[in-house]
UniProtKB/TrEMBL annotation:
<protein>
    <submittedName>
        <fullName>Adenine phosphoribosyltransferase</fullName>
    </submittedName>
</protein>
<dbReference type="Pfam" id="PF00156">
    <property type="entry name" value="Pribosyltran"/>
</dbReference>
<dbReference type="GO" id="GO:0006166">
    <property type="term" value="P:purine ribonucleoside salvage"/>
</dbReference>
<dbReference type="GO" id="GO:0016757">
    <property type="term" value="F:glycosyltransferase activity"/>
</dbReference>
<dbReference type="InterPro" id="IPR000836">
    <property type="entry name" value="PRTase_dom"/>
</dbReference>
<keyword id="KW-0660">Purine salvage</keyword>
<keyword id="KW-0328">Glycosyltransferase</keyword>
<dbReference type="InterPro" id="IPR029057">
    <property type="entry name" value="PRTase-like"/>
</dbReference>
<dbReference type="InterPro" id="IPR050118">
    <property type="entry name" value="Pur/Pyrimidine_PRTase"/>
</dbReference>
<feature type="domain" description="Phosphoribosyltransferase">
    <location>
        <begin position="120"/>
        <end position="164"/>
    </location>
</feature>
<keyword id="KW-0808">Transferase</keyword>
Length: 184
């Protein structure tokens, strides 16, 4: 297979995974590496369901148009919340594809420093989903980029808040509510 053909297949797969609908997340979770046992998908879906319920009861809850998850750790939680909430989702990828209308922001920790969210965000109410927050730098960078693109960030959902960092305080300074499943 040529490099061009491989690139086309990768781009198609990213596009299909990145703008999802609620009928597909379970099948995608089964396809992802590391989630192969019979019970793991159920646990992932239960976590997404619980996180979604907590957000619905949160005082700062507002409706959203789309979920936005972060590659890589945020992908599975995003699928799970999508399934629980019946929401469409997108993924911000650490893959730079030659596609129009991409939002770029900087990830302060990863080896690949730039993250790309494809498509239009102007006028969209976006609920961000990730696996964990520590310093909050990653998510505030994303919030700033989304707002610059004309999006309305309704909140951030994370599975885990590492309270050794100041992520919650940083998000509060940016007036973004944070809802987490558990703290560490
Ligand atoms: O609150 P912060 O201090 O910014 O850290 C949180 C970020 O760190 C992790 O990503 P990581 O860089 O490890 O990338 P990964 O998801 O690809 O593992 C995690 O998934 C968050 O996105």
């Amino acid at each position: 297979m040529t490099a061009t053909a491989r690139k086309a297949i990768t781009a198609d797969r990213v596009a299909r995974l990145g703008v999802g609908d609620t009928t597909r997340p379970v099948r995608i979770v089964h396809e992802l590496d590391g989630v192969r046992s019979d019970t793991a998908p159920d646990r992932v879906m239960a976590a997404g369901d619980n996180l979604w319920r907590l957000w619905c009861e949160h005082p700062a809850y507002r409706p959203h148009d789309v979920l936005l998850g972060l590659d890589a750790g945020g992908i599975i939680p995003t699928l799970a919340v999508s399934w629980a909430s019946g929401s469409h989702y997108r993924i911000a990828w650490k893959i730079n594809l030659d596609l129009p209308e991409k939002l770029v922001f900087h990830e302060p920790h990863a080896r690949r420093l730039e993250v790309f969210a494809y498509g239009r965000f102007k006028g969209q109410r976006v609920l961000i989903v990730d696996d964990e927050i520590t310093t909050g730098l990653t998510l505030t960078n994303l919030v700033t980029a989304l707002r610059s693109a004309g999006a309305d960030v309704t909140g951030v959902l994370c599975l885990v808040e590492d309270t050794t960092g100041d992520g919650r305080e940083l998000l509060e300074r940016h007036e973004v509510p944070l809802c987490v499943l558990t703290t560490l």
